[in-house]
Amino acid sequence: MKKSIVQGLLPSWASRIHPYVTGKPVEEVERDLGHSARKLASNENPYGPSPRTVVAIERSLGRIHLYPDSSVHELRQKLAGHQGVGINQVILGAGSSELIHLAARAFLSPVDEGLTSESAFPIYCLAISETGAAARLVTMRDMTFDLAAIRRAVTHRTKIIFIANPDNPTGTMFPTRELLAFLNDLPPRVMVVLDEAYYDYA
Ligand SMILES: Cc1ncc(COP(=O)(O)O)c(C=O)c1O
């Protein structure tokens, strides 16, 4: 199919979406520079995978011809026990990006609006925009999510707010007391996605 025909089939908001640009793979950097390089851009673990993870993956290789348990019952049960929550409160994704996309897709439609900040992880804006909802970006204060300004930006159309603590890429945090005040002050129809992807890293 010609590109123009494909574009005509897309909903209007889809053609305004800018794809997420990932960090260059180290092989590409090395090809470009002509010598070896160490990649720091994506905050990957420089020490390699946990040996226990490698053993667990190797052990499962003999079963990859079968569909896995799509409800991931065993792992969810263990995680629920570890966190002290019910198994139905645990959702797994291929990375937290998938969960961010799922949250947006589950709750937003083109009449809604999602809030985040302009310097936040770009997937928030992408996930909101992919649903046709309006993505509104609230300016950060001292490179940190300005929770008071985000609260003021909430309208009757706002359904979801994406914030990260600690934040990446700014590397800043807001204190628990600010978060609790923010959550208590929001209308109950507004859902907050609190992304703690960098909790352990910090
Ligand atoms: C704040 C934040 N949340 C989530 C992610 C996505 O993490 P994952 O690799 O688990 O999808 C990133 C990745 O850079 C991030 O910076």
Report on this model:
There is one protein chain. With 202 residues, the protein is α/β, with parallel strands linked by helices. It has one domain: Aspartate Aminotransferase, domain 2 (3-Layer(aba) Sandwich). The chain is 36% helix and 11% strand. The protein has a 4-stranded parallel sheet, with helices on both faces. Helix 5 runs parallel beside helix 6. It is globular. The protein starts with a helix and ends in a 7-residue tail after the last strand. The mean pLDDT is 93. Bound molecules: pyridoxal-5'-phosphate.
Note the main attributes of this structure.
202 residues; alpha/beta; Aspartate Aminotransferase, domain 2; four-stranded parallel β-sheet; 8 helices; globular; binds pyridoxal-5'-phosphate
Secondary structure elements and pairings:
Layout: H1 3-9, H2 26-33, H3 51-60, H4 73-83, H5 96-107, E1 113-117, H6 123-130, E2 134-138, H7 147-153, E3 158-164, H8 176-185, E4 191-195
Pyridoxal-5'-phosphate (PLP) binds at residues 95-97, 121, 164, 168, 195, 197-198.
Summarize this, please?
The chain has 202 residues and is an alpha/beta fold. It has helices at residues 3-9, 26-33, 51-60, 73-83, 96-107, 123-130, 147-153, 176-185, and strands at 113-117, 134-138, 158-164, 191-195. It has one domain (51-195): 3-Layer(aba) Sandwich (Aspartate Aminotransferase, domain 2), CATH 3.40.640.10.
